[in-house]
Amino acid sequence: MVILWRQNMSRNKAAKPGHFPPLRRRPSPYIDRMDTLNPLRSPQAPAGLGMLVRQDGTADAWAGLLAVVLVLLFMALAPVVARAQAVQGAAGDGLQAQVASLLKQQALPQGSSQEGAARQPWRVEVTLGQLDPRLKLAPCDKVKAYVPDNAQLWGKTRVGLRCEQGAVRWNVYWPVTVKVWGRALVAAVPLRPGNTIAQADVVMGEVDLAASSSPAITRAADIVGRTVVRAMEAGQSVRQDDVKNRRWFAIGDPVRLNVRGEGFLVAAEGVALSPGDEGRCARVRMDNGRVLCGQPVGERLVELVL
Fold it and tell me: How far apart are CA 195 and CA 184, in angstroms?
């Protein structure tokens, strides 16, 4: 229809040139199309998405209004969030103070390291960790700090906190690290698995005795001649798990059994029924046929403490 009208108008204009004024191209009030599901979508959307976007800036106005609403909402909530964080921080400080007070009342590890004729007492350091910041504890009128059953103040441990009076009863554990510094053997040179330890390979140094569940070795005589099973760098503490257990005798070897008790010592002879590996119980058959289990402590020597 439109095309025919323009063709007719062109013929009339040719017949009467002064009757029809020249046509002027006017800018369209629509510049592009936008997604009907997202009125704020950029006007660069493909033309087949839906309704037209007017050139009067309606989308920009909505975007500006939304930005203003978000800013006002943030300004309104900021004080509330700040107060909540302040309350949570104050509660965390109070709980930490209770943990510190409890630890001051506990008996911390005590001992000494012997090096020659001098005995040096252990140096203990206690470091308090932090609760998970994502943990939200309900208000509590009375909180009790306690040491959990079977927990030792040695190495990485924890202290319990229990709400005893409050709308919501809760129980959490505060992480604590107890370092116990004492004299023990450290590697003087890098040691690799399969190396046999010599006297010059180890020296005495100050180490954190509680850094590992494996005991630190304090006497060179207990380690010289043994084989390394874990790599160690110079200055690293030598632990029992870092070296292979010494084998004092084999199955079938004749052994001597010392039975120790309070105020007495009984020695007897027997035959080993299991290897005499250091740190493991060795079965020994006595002359009367009785089988006992003792700790290998020397060359073909077993000790049993009653």
Answer: 20
The DSSP line for 43-68 is TTS-TTSSSEEETT-HHHHHHHHHHH
Q: Which two tokens stand for residue 125?
A: 């350091």
CATH number for position 224 = 3.90.1210.10
**Residue whose pair of structure tokens reads 């924890």 in the numeric block:** 158
* 65 backbone dihedrals φ, ψ, rounded to 5°: -65, -40
> What confidence tens digit (pLDDT) does each residue in 40-81 have?
544 444 444 444 444 455 556 667 777 776 766 666 655 544
Contact 245, 278 (CB under 8 A): yes
Cα distance between residue 16 and residue 18, in whole Å: 6
Residue with tokens 């909505």: 62
Backbone φ/ψ region at 123: left (φ over 0), alpha (ψ -120 to 50), beta: beta
Tokens of 236: 């690293």
Contact 207, 186 (CB under 8 A): yes
Strands 142-146 and 123-128: unpaired
**Model pTM?**
0.57
Residue 137 resides in a domain: no
The phi and psi torsions of 183 (rounded to 5 degrees) equal -85, 130
* Domain around 215: 181-242
